[in-house]
Design goal:
The protein has 6 helices and 9 strands; from the N terminus they run ααβββββββββαααα. With about 270 residues, it is α+β, with helices and mostly antiparallel strands. It has 2 domains: about 1-170, Distorted Sandwich (Cation-dependent Mannose-6-phosphate Receptor, Chain A), CATH 2.70.130; about 175-270, no CATH class.
Length: about 270
């Protein structure tokens, strides 16, 4: 029994380093300030569900092939997540020199520490950029090379990966404006419902008398009617028509308007009588 336990312990000690290499997570570059480092480490947690997944080899228009493993080591390349593959693999950056940036719908990993550029531009080194974009329908790592025909990305290689895990960065829930209008609608509904029940059950109101504060709401309706008249019938009330603008006294209820029309009709009849 003791021999079996010793053998099992040896197997675990040997196996665990290999497991650690395949699941090695990305580490923010040491040059990053402490405050920014904490923010970037939180963003890296977004990739936790897909750590270890590989894209397989992808090819650009120049027949160069690349491979990417999400914050884990590529075969025979310890500490490297992104590399140009081939007979002689070229790492484009290392896991322990990672920068993270994001927005609502994307997250970008920048791997530093790539080989020095052969152009000799002040000792510049290659960098690898992998942009994760939110895609609710994508659950596999499928990487595409971002072509750069104008060579705006000097000593950099950029790739795009669409995956649903990044969608967690998107803003969840309702916006502030939507919440405000919902609260406003609920408040008005409660106001009219309880006001209607109170006037009907307690005061015995009937018909339009059941509307709470009906005089106020009637005035609001009259004011809205006046505004519509002024805006959409300006030819009548802005001096362009036969009726002068000063003669318009605003909206009035139908019964008052009818009485006024009858009074004007009687006056006209008196003027025409012999």
């Amino acid at each position: 029994m003791a021999g079996m336990m010793k053998t099992l312990l040896v197997v675990m000690v040997v196996a665990m380093p290999g497991l650690e290499l395949t699941r090695a997570e990305c580490t923010v570059d040491p040059s990053v300030k402490a405050e920014s480092k904490l923010e970037q480490e939180k963003l890296l947690q977004t990739l936790s569900p897909i750590i270890g997944q590989r894209s397989g080899e992808v090819q650009d228009k120049h027949d160069n092939t690349y491979e990417f493993a999400v914050c884990s080591d590529l075969p025979n390349l310890p500490g490297v997540s992104l590399a140009q593959t081939g007979k002689t693999p070229v790492p484009l950056g290392y896991n322990n020199q990672t920068l993270v940036s994001s927005d609502k719908h994307w997250l970008m990993l920048t791997f530093l520490g790539g080989p020095a550029s052969q152009a000799g531009c002040n000792g510049s080194h290659w960098q690898g950029h992998v942009v994760f974009i939110c895609d609710h329908d994508q659950d596999k790592i499928e990487m595409k090379v971002l072509d750069d025909p104008n060579f705006t990305l000097k000593f950099s290689a950029m790739f795009v990966v669409r995956h649903r895990s990044i969608c967690s960065l998107s803003q969840k829930g309702l916006s502030g404006g939507a919440i405000f209008f919902i609260l406003l609608l609920v408040s008005f509904s409660l106001y009219f419902t309880f006001g209607f029940l109170y006037l009907r059950l307690v005061r015995g109101a009937k018909g339009v008398e059941q509307i709470p504060n009906r005089n106020f709401w009637f005035r609001v309706g009259n004011l809205l009617a006046d505004g519509c008249e002024t805006v959409f019938r300006c030819d009548r009330y802005c001096g362009a028509g036969e009726r002068p603008s000063s003669s318009y006294s605003g909206y009035s209820p139908i019964d008052e308007q009818l009485a006024q029309d009858l009074q004007d009709g009687d006056r006209d009849s008196a003027l025409l009588s012999p």
